[in-house]
Each structure stands twice: as C-alpha cells, then as structure tokens.
Amino acid sequence: MSELNPEIKVYCPITEEAKKDFDAVMQESDGYEPFFDEKVPVYIAYVDDQPVGILTYAILKENEGIPTHVERLLPGSISESEEDKADDADAYESFEAEFTVFVKKEFRQQKIATKLINKAKEDLEAKYENLNIVISLPETLLRSSLAAVPAYAELLLRLGREKFLQAINSPKVSGLTKDVETQTKVNRSDDGKTYTLSQGNKEVASVNLNFESNAVNLFKVFVEPLYRNRGFGTTLVAKALNDVFSDKDKPVVLNVKSTNKAARNLYDNVGFDEIERLWYFKV
After folding, report:
1. Region class of 271: left (phi > 0), else alpha (psi between -120 and 50), else beta
2. How far apart are CA 47 and CA 55, in angstroms?
3. Angle at which helices 171-183 and 261-269 cross, to 10°
4. Mapping DSSP to helix (H, G, I), strand (E, B) and coil, where does residue 142 land?
5. Domain 7-140, classified CATH 3.40.630.30, yes or no
6. Does residue 255 register a pLDDT over 80?
7. Closest CA to 42 of 30, 28, 58, 31
C-alpha cells in the first residue's frame, strides 16, 4: 500500500472556504452522510492543497442504552473549572466518540483515513479521560488496519402489521402485559409522536415516533431502571404500535445496539426482525 503525507487541518467552527472543501470531497459520497455540526470539529486532509478526505465525529452519552448528543462535552464548551471536572470525572466512562470518515476514491488505500483517525483520536484523548472511540465500517472491512476490535453492531430492525399482531396476541406477550395494563395508564401526545406510561403520578416509560413517507421510526425507548424486565416497556411499545398499525399500513423501523440486550428482548417480544447490521470498531 502506498502512503501519502497529507496536511490535516481542523476547523471549529467550520469556515465558508472549508465548507466548500468539505462539500468537494463529499461529491463522491453516493449518499453517504457523515455527522456534520458547526459546533463539532471538522478534519480535512489536503494533498497538494486539494481536499481529499474528511473526518467528523459525534460525542454520545450512553443514557441507559439510549444514545444522546451531549453538547456540554464538545470541545470548547465543557467547563474547565476544577469543580466541574470533579463532578464529571466518573461520567466519562459512559461517553463515546463516534467517528465518520470519507476519502475520495483515487486517494484510498494510501493511509489518508488512518491519518485522519489518528489525528482526531490524539486530540480527543488529550482532552478527555476514559472516552471510548468507535468508527463504523462495512462488515467486509472487519480485518481492516483502521480498526481491529469490534465494539458492537448497530442493528436495523423492521416490523410489519401482520407480524406485530401475531406477536402481541401470543400467550407470552399477552401474559407479560396483562398485569401491567391493570396498574398503568398510557398517555399519548396530541401529535401522536410521544407515548408515556404512568403508574399513579409517576412516568415510568416513554417512546417516540417519527412518521416518514415510507416508514415509521421508533426511537428513544426508555424505561425507568426499577421497572425493567417486568413488561412495562413491552406494554407501552405495544400500545404505540397498535395505534400506528390501526392508522397506517407502513413498516416500523428502528436501530439498536447489539449489546443492548434488554432493548433487543423488548423488540423481539413485539415481533421485530433484524434486516441489516453495521459494525462499529474500537480505534
């Protein structure tokens, strides 16, 4: 493999000229969409003053298995006071930087991506302690030199009306939800996009829906820790999906980490099938 020595520039915020360079690289992307946020550093690799590759990242918080953007941890926004550092020290273990990288076709296999990754990794490791860094790669690149250790796979799950009705009418699911339904109340927002489950005055679970032209996205499924593995999440999701399938003949899709066993069990209960997976690797 040949190797180039690109100049890597970091923009935060990105300038107008740098945005043009970013767009010039992404013209070859064929629909690939990296993270892009003006608050997050953008790394651009140049060869002979021409942009040839980009790297961006998102810092995510593992909030009980639900990835959430955490702006206060972005470079330049985190407080540098000793008090804040002490308060945040234990929380670093639950944060993750997820890289996205793209290199122009004629400059691939020349270590451009590797050097972008190493530069961004060096910058992040200098700023944060105990921060996990991962990158998504196709399964065909499992043995890539960019990353050798799989961290997890992100699964794309899909559910249709017929499979859902079979699942919720099964003895397993009906038995699981029967007792929960007698002691809880399901609340639905006016726009039908948010459902919560209440026991008395306490909200114990929530789920969000996003209605697209060809599918319905299910996301941010959350169950209070004391109420997990007791049918509360299954009951709420089943109610939300029953409303969806009563009103629309569209599949429901979602993404979940392979390591999130509780969520995967919930989605299995209501009939979801895995249709695709994307590997993430430690870098």
Report:
1. left
2. 15
3. 100
4. coil
5. yes
6. yes
7. 58
Q: Which two tokens stand for residue 240?
A: 């939300």
125 alpha-carbon distance from chain centroid = 21
> Does 206 have pLDDT greater than 60?
yes
What token pair was written down for 160?
Answer: 């249709």
Angle between helices 171-183 and 232-247 (to 10 degrees): 100
One-letter amino acid at 256 equals: V
Which CATH homologous superfamily contains domain 155-282?
A: Gcn5-related N-acetyltransferase (GNAT) (3.40.630.30)
Overall pTM > 0.85: no
Domain locations along the chain: 7-140, 155-282
- Of the candidates 179, 159, 158, which has an alpha carbon nearest to the alpha carbon of residue 167? 159
CA distances for 156 relative to 96, 144, 204, 280, angstroms: 20, 23, 26, 14
CA-CA distance, 111 to 283, in Å (whole number)? 15
CA dist., res. 110 & res. 108, Å (int): 5
The residue type of 224 is E
Residues 115-174: tens digit of each pLDDT: 999 999 999 988 877 788 888 765 545 555 555 577 888 899 999 999 999 999 999 999
